[in-house]
Amino acid sequence: MSDGRALAREYLEQQRLLGGNPVVTGPASHAAPPTAQPPDRQSADLPPPGVSYDPPSADLFAADPVSQAATLQAVAALVAECTKCRLCEGRANTVPGEGPDDARLVVVGEGPGRVEDETGRPFVGKAGELLTKILGAIDLPRERVFICNVVKCRPPENRLPQYDEIAACLPYLHRQVELLKPKVILAMGGTAAQTLLDTRQSLGSLRNQVHRFRGIPVIVTYHPAALLRNPNWKRPTWDDVRIARRLLD
Ligand code: SF4
User: Fold this and answer.
1) Partners of residue 98 on adjacent β-strands
2) pTM listed for this prediction
3) Residue at 167 is within a domain
4) 79 lines ligand 1 (CB under 6 A)
5) Which of 4, 20, 135, 151 could form a disulfide with 169 if both were Cys (CB 3.0 to 4.6 A apart)?
């Protein structure tokens, strides 16, 4: 008896002992034992109605344009077109930040206010004038500093940026810092400090020490707008910026 016939006989005997009723088509000597199939196997592989299992678009795998931006100007161009969060809806202008490509100090604030939104420039108006004075006090002309914010569009009514808005905008700040490779970052205000340092600690507890963001020293201090409201904070701010100055020297 050939091997095929022996196998078929063995299979039929097994089915008989198990109480099955196999149907063998064609000559028994050539029939292979049937393989078990789930009853609805074919239909189970189809997407349910209304669901497409089409392969994902190639765009999904395209390089992230923010991390690919080669210059600060390229980052600003992406910001200008950005609609990644709801803050795009009320803006007059985006405020990507400004300063030289080789700035050794980067100042990071919270987000644009009314005048920044109108002009497209960071830290203008009274708070901006105070920042210029603070920088002058440590011998840093504003023109030599890169100044920007965590979010690049104005939150309505100058409210705090919300978590999802910060998360959407953060890649721009990260790329700016990557391109600038500054020697020191000055985080002004709680939002900038907590975002860069990824912490919920209060500004008061973060001040007066050197932190790190991707290896770059970060000094935390009050936002100039807060200093305008509370002049008592000017002295501690002065102490903080002197730490930054020492790190730059
Ligand atoms: S705040 Fe940032 S993420 Fe939101 S729309 Fe403006 S640039 Fe885009």
Assistant:
1) 147
2) 0.76
3) yes
4) yes
5) 151
